[in-house]
Amino acid sequence: MSKSMLEAALEQMPHLKGRLVKEAALARLSWFRTGGPAEVLFEPADEADLATFLRHLPGSVPITVIGVGSNLLVRDGGVDGVVIRLGRSFSEIKVRGQALKAGAAAMDVHVAKAAQKHGLTGMAFLVGVPGTIGGALRMNAGAYGRAVEDVLTHARAIDRFGHIHEIDLEAFGFTYRHCSLDPDLIFLNASFILENDAAAEIQREMDAIIDERKNSQPIGTQTGGSTFKNPEGHHAWKLIDEAGCRGKRIGNAQVSEKHTNFLINLGGATATDIEMLGEEVRAQVKDKFGVSLEWEIKRIGKPPVEAKS
Questions:
Q1: What's the half-sphere exposure (Cβ side, CA atoms, 13 Å) at 123?
Q2: Is the pLDDT of residue 83 over 60?
Q3: Can 306 be counted among the known catalytic residues?
Q4: Which among 37, 66, 88 is the end of a domain?
Q5: Is 177 a catalytic residue?
Q6: pTM for the whole structure
Q7: Set 146, 177, 249, 299: catalytic member
Q8: 249 counts as catalytic
Q9: Phi/psi at 56 (nearest 5 deg)?
Q10: What is the pLDDT of residues 85-138, one digit of tens each?
Q11: Do the domain assignments include residue 210?
Q12: Spatial distance between the Cα atoms of 144 and 235, rounded to a whole number of angstroms
């Protein structure tokens, strides 16, 4: 759909309570702090607002959903169509007994802390996952021997046409860092079942995870988190290190000296620099070990015009 057709569709929209911005800067929403704009960015006020928007948006308009931008690389040419970002009204966390319900926009770390506060164990690992529950569901996020699939019971989602779906755990088809659900589904919230434990013991577990991250990862840098999935039987960081990529640079994009499965924007790096560096790392690992690294970071959008062949 051309831009003029998208604009026409937006002009015919019913009143929306949320924020609708054309040519919206996405670099500020990505932890890499780089990348091009969204043709249109929509931040719905609530579930009803999102449903109204989706029901009146032509099916041919591409939709991309983002969270807090922690595991995201926005290409320099920007993103065609509509980018949807869920806000505060989708971040509520409720606890009742051993059940915890979290909105898709709730930060993983906030969910872990809420569980700990109520003496519920099983979600401490989320303090080591930078992102939101929506992203955690989509990629079966995990760390330190635990993953979303271990505690999830069901989730609520909305489809491309504004219809609501209740989804049981079995329907997710979880595998390592992947779920098999329709990629067009937008998660709204998720429910988890946990076990009771002493709050102080859970806090000690969380503190240990936080300390481990501080000691081993480039916390506080402009990075997208773990860049590549661990191939079966291997650690991605070890392959990258032994392929000679530690500290490798393209422009102001660098393979972290501290943890080689992290790419860093040293300041002023383009998304193209970062992606090219990632592909160079993949090529060196493939050449040395015959192992193909798979991107864990979600890459969206298109390259700049000058980068097209």
A1: 31
A2: yes
A3: no
A4: 88
A5: yes
A6: 0.92
A7: 177
A8: no
A9: -105, 5
A10: 999 999 999 999 999 999 999 999 999 999 999 999 999 999 989 999 999 999
A11: no
A12: 13
